[in-house]
Design a protein that fits this description.
The complex is a heterodimer of chains A (about 350) and B (about 450). Chain A is α/β, with parallel strands linked by helices and about 350 residues long. Chain A is built from 15 helices and eight strands. Classes of the chains: A alpha/beta (about 350), B alpha+beta (about 450).
């Protein structure tokens, strides 16, 4: 049930092994990458399975769209290779479980999906979200985070119900067929992960960036350019949906900020470090954060813009210590509107 | 009684003596499960001389006298079991001297934890004292005298071990000083003299009234962090604690276990607070902690939780307000816990038995342990909030506490700041010659038996 659409033949025939050669956290040459792929194909334990930082990037690097990252996670789980200590995983799986407290609610478009981030409900305000309905809570939590914990089984178990919850408790009866995903993780789940596991999604997910771009375009006359230099912290889940990246540039253009070119942006983006800390690799997380912040600082970034709440919570303090302002994308847009 | 009242008014002034029903009601009880016991008088002295006069009066009239600090032990120690005078020390709250170089503070016995914390923050930001997780009104003296512990106990041991010396009025009215202050103008140490402080520590106010004391202060480091090690195997905890403590990084290590929220049930959280002079040192200490338990991390049976900065702030809070919130869980103003001092290897037994007892009495609970020194012992607590307005709930809590005390003694621990009935349980287990020695000492110090009678006594 919900079998991953992964074709071993494609990997067997691959000659570039971009998925592993381009990995920013494991230094693998072409030959080592080839051997690792073969271990993976044979279902054997391997260095990749043990050292993967679960940054999702190989999902973007694969030129064939063959889902190497999902395959790694499935294999980790099969072989009981646990990136995160068992009690931490157990605690998270319990904590993020559906509470089954959902009740039917009539909503109206636009419906903003805040996933399981009730602490960010205050972000849905002002002209950008006028008339919007908001859904939030454990029963609509997208569950994609279990990719970091080698727990695809939890996604397979919970995600179909989450999709049904959204559809049946909110959208269907209200006659709404679009869901604005505030977080990359949710959009990545419904637009990329679910189809990769043949899980049906009856509504149309819309990325927050697409929504913001449209709204800002409508409100263009009210925008006061921010005139700041910004760095963008691209989250891991955006690796699943690189087609949404152009919206970032469009939004930055509309609000009048300059996304300076830097080493660790776009396909070379670095992890925020949160998951790597859960893997008990604080030294690696420190190193990544330092390289990332040095990079932002070296290009004179004044703001560090986030879309992922987890990245924001993990990095906002260290960003501020470097004299930059941490800010969520939605807040940046609100700022441009004088809100 | 009228004569005693007049004498007390002469000593402290009318505003600071009461025999009114309202005050007698308030001073007859605490938030714990012990039955109320009414005083005849409540008196608030303002100086050692006034304390001395009150004790001489009590001695002459052979009326019991019960010293009281914040009255927050929760085990009813300040209830006057045989009536008499409750001596509320809160007016004697002066911070007399801070010795920055030798890192100690001299305070009067009514000075509260919160006052000293605020005073040091304002005047000596480089120093701090070890705060218990009690409301800030708890007194420094009270906590030291009951062998309390707090946020620097992994670094400095029990609060009684942080005591440099004290001044006390004996039950006969003599004022004594013990420690270096008996011989020197400095209150720097209990050594090298015969250590008489033990005559006042752990005695539940049955040997005299402490009026001043000096305690050690510690560096208030500019960089602070917290780590939380999580596991679900209680059998591993003694070794994990041993490893974490022995690297000598932690200021405080606390274990916390609760059935709620559901996602915490069955998990043991070890909360480790530490500080440093620089970020670099802080990182080094974090690595030392991680390496100390590397074995368990590699086996994947435990690990440190990543904690976002916003969440860290609440764990760095001193004292912890979450404990007050838990104490009020059932509303109705009832809360008591068995704090038991025991070696850390008893953790699994204490944990499992504690849960069994709480569940058998239908009590919600919070279990935890504060590590003393480098894992030299721990104060394991079994906390039961209850609704004081619900007689059945009170009764269940009482039974749970009694069973817990019995269990603690059975496995080899000792109930801390024990209620009068628990003191009897301890005495039954105690070496008879030890108890005989306690009685001989008390007879010498307090020939008329006026000091907090009913405590450390058999029926």
């Amino acid at each position: 049930m919900y079998k991953l659409q992964y074709d071993p033949e494609i990997c067997a025939k691959c000659r570039t092994f971009d998925c592993f050669v381009r990995c920013q956290y494991m230094d693998l040459d072409l030959e080592e990458a080839r051997q690792e792929i073969h271990h993976l194909l044979r279902g054997e334990d391997s260095r990749v399975l043990n050292e993967c930082a679960t940054c999702y990037a190989c999902e973007e690097y694969c030129p064939h769209g063959n889902h190497p990252f999902y395959q790694i996670v499935d294999r980790q789980e099969q072989l009981k290779i646990r990136p995160v200590p068992i009690p931490l995983t157990t605690q998270q799986v319990k904590m993020m479980a559906p509470r089954r407290q959902i009740v039917p609610l009539t909503v109206q478009a636009p419906v903003i999906n805040m996933c399981y981030f009730p602490m960010l409900l205050g972000c849905v305000r002002g002209k950008l979200f006028e008339g919007a309905s908001v859904i939030v809570g454990s029963d609509v939590f997208c569950n994609i985070m279990w990719l970091h914990f080698a727990k695809s089984s939890v996604i397979r178990e919970r995600l179909p119900q989450v999709i049904q919850n959204i559809e049946n408790y909110y959208l269907k009866e209200s006659g709404v067929d679009e869901l604005i995903c505030f977080h990359d993780e949710c959009y990545g789940t419904y637009a990329h992960l679910a189809p990769s596991f043949s899980i049906e999604v009856p509504f149309k997910p819309i990325h927050l960036f697409e929504y913001l771009t449209k709204k800002l375009t409508q409100l263009r006359s009210e925008i006061r350019p921010i005139n700041k230099t910004v760095a963008y912290q691209r989250p891991c889940s955006n690796r699943l949906i690189p087609e949404t990246q152009h919206w970032v540039d469009e939004i930055f253009g509309l609000v009048g900020v300059d996304r300076v070119e830097r080493e660790h942006d776009r396909e070379n983006a670095l992890c925020c470090g949160m998951t790597i800390r859960a893997m008990q690799r604080d030294d690696l997380a420190d190193d990544i954060q330092k390289r990332n912040l040095d990079d932002m600082e070296s290009v004179g970034a004044e703001y560090c813009v986030f879309n992922c709440p987890a990245c924001f919570f993990a990095m906002k303090e260290v960003v501020a210590k470097r004299g930059m302002t941490p800010i969520l994308m939605s807040e940046l847009c609100q700022m441009a509107l004088g809100e | 009684m009228e004569e005693i009242y007049k004498e007390l008014v002469n000593i402290v002034g009318q505003s600071y003596v009461s025999n009114h029903a309202e005050e007698r009601f308030i001073y007859s009880r605490d938030m714990g499960t012990m039955e109320p016991s009414y005083p005849d008088f409540v008196v608030m002295p303002n100086s050692t001389e006034e304390v001395q006069k009150i004790i001489l009066l009590a001695n002459k009239m052979e009326i019991p006298i019960v010293p009281m600090g914040g009255g927050l032990t929760l085990s009813g120690i300040c209830r006057p079991l045989k009536g008499g005078i409750v001596l509320d020390m809160k007016r004697m709250n002066r911070i007399i001297e801070v010795n920055e170089t030798s890192s100690y503070v001299l305070v009067e016995a009514g000075a509260s934890q919160g006052m000293l914390q605020a005073y040091l923050k304002k005047h000596y930001p480089g120093l701090k004292h070890s705060m218990p997780d009690a409301p800030p009104i708890a007194t420094i003296a009270g906590n030291v005298l009951i062998h309390g512990s707090g946020h620097l106990s992994a670094a400095g041991g029990f609060h009684s071990e942080m005591l440099n010396g004290l001044e006390a009025v004996l039950p006969t009215g003599d004022v004594v000083r013990v420690g270096s202050c008996s011989t020197s103008p400095y209150w720097f140490s209990r050594s090298p003299l015969p250590d008489l402080s033990g005559l006042f520590l752990g005695w539940m106010g049955t040997t005299g009234v402490v009026t001043k004391l000096a305690i050690k202060l510690f560096p208030n480091l500019p960089f602070n962090d917290v780590r939380i090690f999580l596991t679900d195997e209680p059998e591993l905890i003694p070794d994990i604690l041993h490893r974490l403590a022995r690297v000598q990084v932690a200021e405080d290590i606390v274990a916390a276990m609760a059935p709620r929220p559901d996602w915490l049930r069955g998990l043991q959280m070890l909360i480790i607070n530490y500080g440093a002079e620089s970020e670099k040192e802080l990182t080094l200490k974090r690595e030392m902690l991680r390496e100390s338990v590397r074995k368990y991390i590699d086996e994947k049976v435990g690990g440190f939780m990543p904690i976002p900065p916003d969440m860290k702030r609440s764990f760095l809070e001193v004292p912890q307000s979450s404990i007050s919130r838990f104490a009020d869980l059932k509303k109705g103003g009832g809360f008591e816990y068995v704090g038991a001092i025991m070696p850390i290897e008893l953790f699994p037994d204490a944990y499992r038995n504690g849960i069994d007892i709480a569940e058998s009495h239908g009590m919600t609970y919070s279990l935890g342990a504060r590590i003393i020194g480098l894992g030299h012992s721990m104060m394991f607590f079994f906390a039961y909030p209850f609704n004081r307005a619900d007689a059945e709930d009170v009764n269940n809590a009482q039974k749970a506490l009694e069973d817990t005390n019995e269990m603690v003694l059975e496995i080899g621990g000792i109930p801390w700041k024990a209620e009068a009935p628990a003191q009897k349980q301890i005495i039954r287990k105690m070496c008879p010659n030890t108890f005989a020695l306690m009685n001989r000492l008390r007879a010498v110090l307090d020939p008329k038996g006026i000091m907090n009678p009913g405590n450390w006594e058999v029926d």
